[in-house]
Fold AraC family transcriptional regulator.
Amino acid sequence: MKVALQKSPISPNQAFEIKFLSDPHFDANWHFHPEYQLFVVLKGTGTRFIGDHVAPFREGDVVFTGPDLPHLWRSDPEYFEGNAALGTEGVVIYFHEDFLGSQLLEKNELYWIRQLFGKARQGMELVGNAGEHIKKQMLDLLTAKDFESILKLLNILHFMAHTSDYHLLSSEGYTNSLKESDTERMNRVHAYVMKNFRERISLEEVAAIANMTPSSFSRYFKTHANKTFSEFLTEIRIGYSCKLLIEKKLNISQACYESGFHTLSNFNRQFKAVTQHSPLEYKNKYNEVQRN
């Protein structure tokens, strides 16, 4: 099992690194690294974990993360079942905060870039037209060379620094308390939950996966995830149910049972607690957006 990235993905003779990703599924490991990261999903669906934030992702998902903010794009379970018709694609950019030099970053002209970097430490999702614009700019950057590539990256950062079409993801008070040894343990927990969340999962089961007692695991998880394990599991199930309601067009009862809930009343209550909408309101709101 992989642990936190230790080696920079950026070549020592380059200012930044951009990669086109194409794999059966995205990297299934919870990790963090010292570089800023801008990532766009071109193909694939699943669940995104950024610090203490959990949400579904799909094509067009654009997220900017800061240094040492733990993250994971976990593809849906069917991507791990060897189905050749499924696959994932994305574009990722890595760079250090001082990729232009630390002195330049402190100048007045880069004030908004400094503000942007501050937001990235919580994780920043670019939405709507802003997300679509950045996606196109990143695809364009893939073929840019030399000084032109620096200018294009700066234009992307400038645009992100001035758009209002974004959501901050992790809680404002979230801090990464993970050590490298913790990432392996959390990866085992994430992998088990994502494989089995549609079934009953007891605290005793998942504590055993982490090689801890249930009480110790509860304290450990709350410290590192900034939420209880039960809240974490509920968010994953609700995120998956949103996908079933919208993408698979299942009815509310089907989405309830196929996402791991056992009663409609509990599903409706938990759905509203996580999304601030009932399942029916959520579907209607999505359909209204699509019509407009």
User: Anything to note?
Assistant: The first strand starts at residue 16 and ends at 23. Confidence is low (pLDDT under 50) at residues 1-6.
